[in-house]
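Hey team,

Sharing the TetR family transcriptional regulator run so nobody has to redo it. Sequence (242 residues) first:
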Amino acid sequence: MADNSEKKKSPAKLPERPTSGRQKLMESALALAASTRSLATLGLREVARHAGLNPNTFYRHFKDFDDLGVAMLKELGTELRTGLRERRMRPAAKGFRLSDLSNPAEGLAQAQALARESVGLVLDFVKDHREAYIVGIRELHGTSPVMRKAMQQMLEDIAKDMTEDLLGVLKLPAVTPEEMIEVARVIVRQMVFFSMDYLDQPARQQEIKREAERFILLLFWGAIAARAPALLAQSGLKFPAI
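Structure output:
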């Protein structure tokens, strides 16, 4: 596990914006829940006191702690999804398509760079929003069905974004939409574990980045090989050393 000094360097935070009562309450809830607790165990007065607000202020912004938690996840999820989609669009903006194997070596290099950028963004995001991420993942298996559903929906939305981008923009060859969403879901779920390792094992962060990148490429390589083995055979490409 990461040492205490590492945790102290990463204050609980949401995407920056002018501080309001709503924002103060969310950040206070994160700060209180980030160590060992869940949002469901927090008290209204406790959170309001930490935020320096009157307890009645809470109900001006949220119905209950589930409402607060869902609002937090939406903010973080929107920021992460926007960043990931922007990075996946970069190769397409340059005219690159994964289905165009006229230059297989270049295609492989582009795909590898895309995986590296996406992994880097996710892990940097998690590091910058450490407490929020830990609380969110804890709620994925927590006692609140509302929060569990919100976390599951956020992961599903990220997987759907990936599917839409890779099939509609980058034209991943031979893989059906049904297969692509399955691959995307596996990637998103596995990145949850890579991200936790990344936070807990700072000495291995570069190694974990490479493991995540390799995992993603293996899945896509396998999906293409299963559907269109001739494409890889004709190209003469070998899986890259990472």
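The domain at 65-235 is CATH 1.10.357.10 (Tetracycline Repressor; domain 2).

Ping me if you want the raw files.
A.
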